[in-house]
Amino acid sequence: MLLPYLEPGRLEAGCDEAGRGCLAGPVFAAAVILPEGYSNDLLNDSKQLSEKRRDSLRPVIERDALAWAVGIVTAEEIDRINILNASFLAMHRAIDALKVRPEFLLIDGNRFKPYSGISHECIVKGDGKMMSIAAASILAKTHRDEYMKRIHEEYPQYAWNINKGYPTKAHRAAIAQYGTTPYHRLSFRLIDTLPSLFE
Predict the structure, then answer these.
(1) Residue 186: strand, helix, or coil
(2) pLDDT at res. 194
(3) What is the pLDDT of residues 57-75, one digit of tens each?
(4) N or C: which end of the chain has fewer CB within 10 A?
(5) What is the distance between the alpha carbons of residues 143 and 124, in angstroms, rounded to a whole number?
């Protein structure tokens, strides 16, 4: 059973990211503020849900939330600042874009770069514990998947509509055969037999 708030009566935004382990595409993060007393039995960590269920929950979350926003950090930025900092930056950009300013941030995971003026708490596996983090995980994942399907049209040989940029055997084989695109993270180990291009 997911908790709606860590501290009842406090305006809390749940934050989570998607695409951290991918070889291509941006990292996406979402921030979601749910109304007090909100309940939705279908909400869960996005990784525990089917793609169909995530896609059906997205409009419900976007409709019901007091505020929600998505932040994006590109592959080029990831290469420049590293994926950990990029994940924090994506969350900061999502928080920046919220139409309602939260009083507190609930961050999925064990590390975060403090956001100026708003206290936070890191919650390991928070997307399976807190409703607002679960909602954020679903928005981050569905918005990112939608983006990867769109850029798949540009570069269909990498099958991003299926692998979403993750390091599958087929994705690595396509990189070996066709090389990289502007969407690939050159600081990552793109092919198992080669070091990253930045090493």
Answers:
(1) coil
(2) 52
(3) 999 999 999 999 999 999 9
(4) N
(5) 23
Contact between 26 and 145 (Cβ < 8 Å): no
**3 state DSSP class of 3:** strand
Query: At 106, phi and psi to the nearest 5?
Result: -110, 115
pLDDT, tens only, 127-174: 999 999 999 999 999 999 999 999 999 999 999 999 999 999 999 999
15 in Cβ contact with 114 (< 8 Å): no
pLDDT at 193 over 70: no
- 3-class state of residue 103 by DSSP: coil
How is residue 199 written in tokens? 């090493």
Return the pLDDT at 183.
98
Q: Order the strands of the 104-108 sheet from edge to edge.
A: 67-73, 27-33, 12-18, 104-108, 119-123
Amino acid symbol at 9: G
Q: Helix, strand, or coil here: 16?
A: strand
User: How far is residue 199's CA from residue 194's CA, in Å, rounded to a whole number?
Assistant: 10
Type and span of the H or E element at 24: none
| Predicted TM-score (pTM) of this structure | 0.94
Q: What single-letter amino acid sits at 57? A: L
